[in-house]
Description:
- 39% of the residues lie in helices and 16% in strands.
- By secondary structure, the chain is of the alpha/beta class.
- The strands form two sheets. The chain has a seven-stranded parallel sheet with strand order 3-2-1-7-8-9-10, with helices on both faces. A three-stranded antiparallel sheet has the order 5-4-6.
- The longest helix has 15 residues, at 313-327.
Amino acid sequence: MxxxxxxxxxxxxxxxxxxxxxxxxxxxxxxxxxxxxRITGDLTAVVTVADDGGSSGRLRSEMGVLPPGDLRKALAxxxxxxxxxxxxxxxxxxxxxxxGDLHGHAVGNLLIVALWEQLDxxxxxxxxxxxxxxxxxRVLPMSAVPLDLHAIVRGHDPDRPDEISTVRGQATxxxxxxxxxxxxxxxxxxxxxxxxxxxxxxxxxxxxxPGSWFSSVMPHLLVPELAEALMTTRARRVLTLNLAPQPGxxxxxxxxxxxxxLGRHAPKLTIDVVLADEAAVPDRDSLDEAAEKLGGTVELAxxxxxxxxxxxxxxxxxxxxxxxxxxxxIGPWR
Length: 334
Protein backbone atom coordinates (compact mmCIF):
# COMPACT_ATOMS: atom_id res chain seq x y z
CA MET A 1 0.00 0.00 0.00
CA UNK A 2 1.43 3.34 -1.00
CA UNK A 3 2.49 5.83 1.65
CA UNK A 4 3.45 9.40 0.89
CA UNK A 5 6.85 10.68 1.98
CA UNK A 6 7.29 11.71 5.58
CA UNK A 7 8.31 15.23 6.58
CA UNK A 8 11.94 15.81 7.42
CA UNK A 9 12.76 15.23 11.07
CA UNK A 10 13.07 18.50 12.92
CA UNK A 11 13.43 18.99 16.62
CA UNK A 12 15.45 17.01 19.08
CA UNK A 13 19.16 16.31 19.16
CA UNK A 14 20.32 13.84 16.51
CA UNK A 15 17.43 14.62 14.16
CA UNK A 16 14.80 12.77 16.23
CA UNK A 17 11.50 14.67 15.86
CA UNK A 18 9.61 15.77 18.96
CA UNK A 19 6.67 13.59 19.96
CA UNK A 20 3.62 15.82 19.71
CA UNK A 21 0.03 15.09 20.72
CA UNK A 22 -2.72 17.48 19.55
CA UNK A 23 -6.15 17.42 21.18
CA UNK A 24 -9.39 18.90 19.89
CA UNK A 25 -11.95 18.38 17.17
CA UNK A 26 -13.40 19.82 14.01
CA UNK A 27 -11.79 22.58 11.99
CA UNK A 28 -9.68 23.83 14.88
CA UNK A 29 -7.85 20.55 15.31
CA UNK A 30 -7.47 20.27 11.54
CA UNK A 31 -5.70 23.64 11.51
CA UNK A 32 -3.31 22.53 14.22
CA UNK A 33 -2.58 19.20 12.53
CA UNK A 34 -2.00 20.81 9.14
CA UNK A 35 0.71 22.90 10.80
CA UNK A 36 2.23 20.26 13.07
CA UNK A 37 2.68 17.65 10.32
CA ARG A 38 5.07 20.09 8.67
CA ILE A 39 7.48 20.05 11.60
CA THR A 40 7.34 16.55 13.05
CA GLY A 41 6.79 13.00 11.83
CA ASP A 42 5.82 11.80 15.32
CA LEU A 43 2.33 13.24 15.65
CA THR A 44 -0.82 11.89 17.32
CA ALA A 45 -4.27 13.47 17.20
CA VAL A 46 -6.68 12.76 20.06
CA VAL A 47 -10.18 13.62 18.88
CA THR A 48 -13.41 14.37 20.72
CA VAL A 49 -16.33 11.95 20.10
CA ALA A 50 -19.40 13.90 21.18
CA ASP A 51 -20.61 15.11 17.77
CA ASP A 52 -24.30 14.46 17.21
CA GLY A 53 -25.05 16.50 14.09
CA GLY A 54 -24.99 15.95 10.34
CA SER A 55 -23.65 12.77 8.80
CA SER A 56 -21.89 11.80 12.05
CA GLY A 57 -25.07 12.15 14.05
CA ARG A 58 -27.04 10.04 11.57
CA LEU A 59 -24.45 7.25 11.56
CA ARG A 60 -24.16 7.37 15.33
CA SER A 61 -27.93 7.10 15.75
CA GLU A 62 -28.43 4.40 13.11
CA MET A 63 -25.32 2.27 13.70
CA GLY A 64 -24.50 2.90 17.37
CA VAL A 65 -20.92 3.86 16.47
CA LEU A 66 -18.60 6.66 17.48
CA PRO A 67 -19.27 9.82 15.46
CA PRO A 68 -16.67 9.58 12.69
CA GLY A 69 -16.73 13.15 11.36
CA ASP A 70 -14.05 14.80 13.49
CA LEU A 71 -11.85 11.71 13.12
CA ARG A 72 -12.23 11.98 9.34
CA LYS A 73 -11.31 15.67 9.38
CA ALA A 74 -8.20 14.93 11.41
CA LEU A 75 -7.10 12.22 8.97
CA ALA A 76 -7.66 14.55 6.01
CA UNK A 77 -5.59 17.26 7.70
CA UNK A 78 -2.72 14.79 8.10
CA UNK A 79 -2.64 14.02 4.36
CA UNK A 80 0.49 15.13 2.54
CA UNK A 81 0.82 17.90 -0.03
CA UNK A 82 1.75 15.50 -2.85
CA UNK A 83 -0.78 14.24 -5.42
CA UNK A 84 -1.62 11.14 -3.37
CA UNK A 85 -2.32 13.12 -0.23
CA UNK A 86 -4.29 15.89 -1.94
CA UNK A 87 -6.43 13.38 -3.83
CA UNK A 88 -7.29 11.26 -0.82
CA UNK A 89 -7.98 14.32 1.34
CA UNK A 90 -10.56 15.44 -1.22
CA UNK A 91 -12.07 11.95 -1.49
CA UNK A 92 -12.61 11.39 2.24
CA UNK A 93 -14.03 14.91 2.63
CA UNK A 94 -16.38 14.52 -0.35
CA UNK A 95 -20.08 14.64 0.53
CA UNK A 96 -22.76 13.02 -1.59
CA UNK A 97 -25.49 15.22 -3.00
CA UNK A 98 -28.65 13.32 -3.83
CA UNK A 99 -32.34 13.10 -3.20
CA GLY A 100 -31.94 9.92 -1.16
CA ASP A 101 -30.49 8.54 2.04
CA LEU A 102 -26.87 9.14 0.99
CA HIS A 103 -27.36 12.90 0.83
CA GLY A 104 -24.95 14.73 3.11
CA HIS A 105 -22.88 11.70 4.05
CA ALA A 106 -19.11 12.11 3.75
CA VAL A 107 -17.18 9.34 1.99
CA GLY A 108 -14.64 9.20 4.81
CA ASN A 109 -17.35 8.70 7.42
CA LEU A 110 -18.68 5.66 5.56
CA LEU A 111 -15.17 4.28 5.05
CA ILE A 112 -14.32 4.59 8.75
CA VAL A 113 -17.59 2.97 9.85
CA ALA A 114 -17.11 0.12 7.35
CA LEU A 115 -13.68 -0.64 8.79
CA TRP A 116 -15.05 -0.46 12.32
CA GLU A 117 -17.58 -3.13 11.36
CA GLN A 118 -14.94 -5.26 9.61
CA LEU A 119 -12.31 -5.10 12.36
CA ASP A 120 -14.43 -4.48 15.47
CA UNK A 121 -11.55 -2.28 16.69
CA UNK A 122 -11.82 1.51 16.48
CA UNK A 123 -8.09 2.16 16.86
CA UNK A 124 -6.97 -0.47 14.35
CA UNK A 125 -9.54 0.72 11.80
CA UNK A 126 -8.28 4.30 12.01
CA UNK A 127 -4.72 3.04 11.53
CA UNK A 128 -5.83 1.31 8.32
CA UNK A 129 -7.47 4.48 7.01
CA UNK A 130 -4.33 6.44 7.91
CA UNK A 131 -2.15 4.02 5.96
CA UNK A 132 -4.42 4.27 2.93
CA UNK A 133 -4.25 8.07 3.01
CA UNK A 134 -0.51 8.17 3.73
CA UNK A 135 -1.33 10.25 6.81
CA UNK A 136 1.56 12.04 8.51
CA UNK A 137 0.52 10.93 11.97
CA ARG A 138 -1.92 8.87 13.97
CA VAL A 139 -5.56 9.60 14.84
CA LEU A 140 -7.20 8.30 18.01
CA PRO A 141 -10.62 8.88 19.59
CA MET A 142 -10.44 10.25 23.14
CA SER A 143 -12.97 7.63 24.29
CA ALA A 144 -14.21 4.35 22.82
CA VAL A 145 -17.85 5.13 23.68
CA PRO A 146 -20.03 7.79 22.05
CA LEU A 147 -20.46 10.76 24.38
CA ASP A 148 -23.18 13.35 24.82
CA LEU A 149 -22.34 16.95 25.62
CA HIS A 150 -24.50 18.91 28.05
CA ALA A 151 -24.01 22.60 28.78
CA ILE A 152 -25.24 24.84 31.55
CA VAL A 153 -26.35 27.97 29.70
CA ARG A 154 -27.65 31.33 30.81
CA GLY A 155 -30.19 32.80 28.39
CA HIS A 156 -30.46 29.94 25.90
CA ASP A 157 -33.98 31.24 25.33
CA PRO A 158 -33.50 34.86 24.22
CA ASP A 159 -36.88 35.74 25.75
CA ARG A 160 -35.54 34.65 29.17
CA PRO A 161 -32.01 36.10 29.28
CA ASP A 162 -31.42 35.37 32.97
CA GLU A 163 -32.75 31.80 33.01
CA ILE A 164 -30.24 28.98 33.59
CA SER A 165 -30.98 25.83 31.60
CA THR A 166 -29.29 22.63 30.44
CA VAL A 167 -28.67 22.42 26.71
CA ARG A 168 -28.09 18.92 25.33
CA GLY A 169 -26.09 17.92 22.26
CA GLN A 170 -22.85 19.23 20.80
CA ALA A 171 -24.53 20.69 17.72
CA THR A 172 -27.01 22.62 19.87
CA UNK A 173 -24.36 23.79 22.34
CA UNK A 174 -22.19 25.12 19.52
CA UNK A 175 -25.02 27.35 18.27
CA UNK A 176 -26.60 28.50 21.54
CA UNK A 177 -27.33 32.23 21.66
CA UNK A 178 -26.90 32.12 25.44
CA UNK A 179 -23.82 32.29 27.67
CA UNK A 180 -22.29 28.87 28.31
CA UNK A 181 -21.30 28.51 31.96
CA UNK A 182 -19.80 25.02 31.84
CA UNK A 183 -20.03 21.74 29.93
CA UNK A 184 -20.42 18.17 31.09
CA UNK A 185 -20.11 14.77 29.44
CA UNK A 186 -22.68 11.98 29.60
CA UNK A 187 -21.70 9.46 30.82
CA UNK A 188 -19.88 11.58 33.39
CA UNK A 189 -16.82 9.33 33.75
CA UNK A 190 -16.22 7.88 30.28
CA UNK A 191 -13.31 5.50 29.71
CA UNK A 192 -10.38 6.94 27.78
CA UNK A 193 -8.81 5.08 24.88
CA UNK A 194 -5.63 3.59 26.44
CA UNK A 195 -3.51 4.47 23.41
CA UNK A 196 -4.56 8.12 23.74
CA UNK A 197 -3.57 8.20 27.41
CA UNK A 198 -0.22 6.60 26.65
CA UNK A 199 0.45 9.02 23.80
CA UNK A 200 -0.02 11.97 26.17
CA UNK A 201 2.24 10.40 28.78
CA UNK A 202 4.96 9.71 26.19
CA UNK A 203 4.79 13.11 24.47
CA UNK A 204 7.35 15.89 24.45
CA UNK A 205 4.66 18.46 23.68
CA UNK A 206 0.88 18.48 24.05
CA UNK A 207 -1.12 21.00 21.99
CA UNK A 208 -4.66 21.92 23.07
CA UNK A 209 -6.79 24.06 20.76
CA PRO A 210 -7.70 25.93 18.67
CA GLY A 211 -11.32 25.02 18.12
CA SER A 212 -14.83 25.38 19.49
CA TRP A 213 -13.93 26.05 23.10
CA PHE A 214 -16.79 24.34 24.90
CA SER A 215 -17.69 21.64 22.37
CA SER A 216 -14.26 20.59 21.02
CA VAL A 217 -11.55 21.70 23.46
CA MET A 218 -13.03 21.37 26.97
CA PRO A 219 -14.40 17.79 26.54
CA HIS A 220 -10.85 16.34 26.69
CA LEU A 221 -10.53 17.72 30.21
CA LEU A 222 -13.68 15.87 31.30
CA VAL A 223 -12.44 12.34 30.55
CA PRO A 224 -10.86 11.39 33.91
CA GLU A 225 -8.00 9.19 32.66
CA LEU A 226 -7.12 11.61 29.89
CA ALA A 227 -7.29 14.61 32.23
CA GLU A 228 -5.01 12.82 34.70
CA ALA A 229 -2.52 12.10 31.92
CA LEU A 230 -2.57 15.76 30.87
CA MET A 231 -1.80 16.82 34.41
CA THR A 232 0.94 14.26 35.10
CA THR A 233 2.76 14.02 31.77
CA ARG A 234 6.30 15.37 31.60
CA ALA A 235 5.42 16.96 28.26
CA ARG A 236 5.13 20.69 27.95
CA ARG A 237 1.68 22.04 27.10
CA VAL A 238 0.73 24.62 24.48
CA LEU A 239 -2.73 26.20 24.48
CA THR A 240 -3.57 27.68 21.07
CA LEU A 241 -6.24 30.37 21.12
CA ASN A 242 -8.81 31.02 18.44
CA LEU A 243 -8.51 33.98 16.12
CA ALA A 244 -11.90 35.36 17.18
CA PRO A 245 -14.84 34.49 19.44
CA GLN A 246 -17.18 31.88 17.99
CA PRO A 247 -20.72 33.12 17.28
CA GLY A 248 -23.01 31.58 19.84
CA UNK A 249 -20.68 29.46 21.94
CA UNK A 250 -18.11 32.12 22.93
CA UNK A 251 -19.72 35.30 21.63
CA UNK A 252 -18.06 38.32 23.23
CA UNK A 253 -15.26 36.32 24.88
CA UNK A 254 -11.88 38.01 25.31
CA UNK A 255 -8.73 35.91 24.86
CA UNK A 256 -8.19 35.85 28.61
CA UNK A 257 -11.73 34.64 29.23
CA UNK A 258 -10.96 31.52 27.22
CA UNK A 259 -8.17 30.79 29.71
CA UNK A 260 -10.48 31.41 32.65
CA UNK A 261 -12.93 28.84 31.23
CA LEU A 262 -10.15 26.27 30.98
CA GLY A 263 -9.13 26.98 34.57
CA ARG A 264 -12.67 26.37 35.80
CA HIS A 265 -12.96 23.05 33.99
CA ALA A 266 -9.47 21.78 34.93
CA PRO A 267 -8.20 23.76 37.95
CA LYS A 268 -5.15 21.50 38.42
CA LEU A 269 -3.96 21.69 34.82
CA THR A 270 -0.98 23.90 34.09
CA ILE A 271 -0.11 25.40 30.71
CA ASP A 272 3.44 26.27 29.65
CA VAL A 273 2.75 28.44 26.61
CA VAL A 274 -0.36 30.28 25.39
CA LEU A 275 -0.10 30.90 21.65
CA ALA A 276 -2.23 33.68 20.18
CA ASP A 277 -2.34 35.70 16.99
CA GLU A 278 -0.83 39.09 17.62
CA ALA A 279 -3.76 40.90 15.99
CA ALA A 280 -6.34 39.06 18.12
CA VAL A 281 -5.08 40.29 21.52
CA PRO A 282 -6.26 43.82 22.33
CA ASP A 283 -5.11 43.62 25.97
CA ARG A 284 -1.72 41.90 26.30
CA ASP A 285 -1.39 42.62 30.02
CA SER A 286 -4.69 40.90 30.88
CA LEU A 287 -3.78 37.88 28.78
CA ASP A 288 -0.34 37.70 30.43
CA GLU A 289 -2.03 37.73 33.83
CA ALA A 290 -4.49 34.99 32.88
CA ALA A 291 -1.70 32.83 31.44
CA GLU A 292 0.39 33.30 34.57
CA LYS A 293 -2.47 31.94 36.68
CA LEU A 294 -2.25 28.75 34.61
CA GLY A 295 1.53 28.62 35.07
CA GLY A 296 2.40 29.78 31.57
CA THR A 297 3.59 32.64 29.41
CA VAL A 298 2.16 34.19 26.27
CA GLU A 299 3.66 33.79 22.80
CA LEU A 300 2.27 36.20 20.23
CA ALA A 301 2.81 35.46 16.55
CA UNK A 302 1.25 36.21 13.20
CA UNK A 303 -0.63 32.98 12.52
CA UNK A 304 -3.80 34.16 10.75
CA UNK A 305 -4.23 33.65 7.02
CA UNK A 306 -4.38 36.88 5.02
CA UNK A 307 -7.53 35.82 3.15
CA UNK A 308 -9.89 35.11 6.02
CA UNK A 309 -10.45 34.21 9.69
CA UNK A 310 -8.47 30.98 9.70
CA UNK A 311 -5.02 29.84 10.77
CA UNK A 312 -2.40 29.75 8.05
CA UNK A 313 -0.70 26.31 8.20
CA UNK A 314 2.77 27.62 7.34
CA UNK A 315 2.63 30.52 9.78
CA UNK A 316 1.21 28.32 12.53
CA UNK A 317 3.88 25.70 11.83
CA UNK A 318 6.58 28.35 12.17
CA UNK A 319 5.13 29.47 15.50
CA UNK A 320 4.98 25.92 16.86
CA UNK A 321 8.50 25.21 15.63
CA UNK A 322 9.84 28.31 17.35
CA UNK A 323 8.09 27.39 20.60
CA UNK A 324 9.36 23.81 20.51
CA UNK A 325 12.95 24.93 19.83
CA UNK A 326 13.14 27.83 22.23
CA UNK A 327 11.06 26.49 25.12
CA UNK A 328 11.60 22.76 24.93
CA UNK A 329 13.02 20.67 27.74
CA ILE A 330 14.94 18.55 25.28
CA GLY A 331 17.72 20.47 23.64
CA PRO A 332 19.50 22.01 22.09
CA TRP A 333 16.82 22.07 19.39
CA ARG A 334 18.16 21.60 15.87
